[in-house]
Amino acid sequence: MKIFWPLIAAFIMLRPLIPIVNYIVNYDYIVDELCVNRDKPELNCNGRCYLMQALADEASKKKESEERGAKNNLNSNIAFFHAPGQLLELSLLKLESKNVACDTYVSTHTIQFIQKLIKPPIV
Questions:
Q1: Residue 114 included in any domain
Q2: 5, 25, 81, 85: which has the fewest Cβ within 10 Å?
Q3: CA–CA separation, 13 and 49 (whole Å)
Q4: Residue 51 CB: number of other CB atoms within 10 A?
Q5: Which domain of life is it from (predicted)?
């Protein structure tokens, strides 16, 4: 399982290179059979037309998947409603709480944790 997710990530990242690898591996077959310009040797196409078409197909697949992904995503917008009076009331409450002493505070601690400074050992 530790190897599975990195392999999937590597495949996704290297997916656009698949037509190029296919072109390199099957170069002779593409030049002899699949090239659009095989009847015109003076163009020296050597199957590049097939490679460009394969790259264009890959790009269109990527664009279509991005469009489908954009349609399927839930774009949730958070609406924030602001009433100007509420902010003023909150700021007044904060100011009042700073100025008013709290009489209900009861200290439950009877001792301090550090009563005196502890000196480091002498070596």
A1: no
A2: 81
A3: 24
A4: 20
A5: Bacteria
> What is the Rg, in whole angstroms, of the alpha carbon atoms belonging to the chain?
35
Instruction: Give the residue-averaged pLDDT of 97-107.
Output: 59
For residue 26, is it within any domain? yes
Determine how many CB atoms are found less than 10 A away from the CB of residue 43.
13
Distance separating alpha carbons of residues 80 and 101, to the nearest angstrom: 34
The lowest-confidence range among 12-16, 22-26, 72-76, 92-96 is 92-96
* Count of domains observed in the chain: 1
| Domain annotation covers residue 100 | no
pLDDT for 92? 47
Domain membership of residue 34 as a residue range: 17-71
Nearest-angstrom CA–CA distance, 24 and 54 = 13
Give the pair of three-digit tokens for residue 18.
């698949």
Q: Is residue 56 part of a domain?
A: yes
- What helix, strand, coil percent values describe the chain, rounded to 5? 60, 0, 40
Find all residues with CB under 8 Å of 54, minimum gap 6, and list them: 19, 22, 23
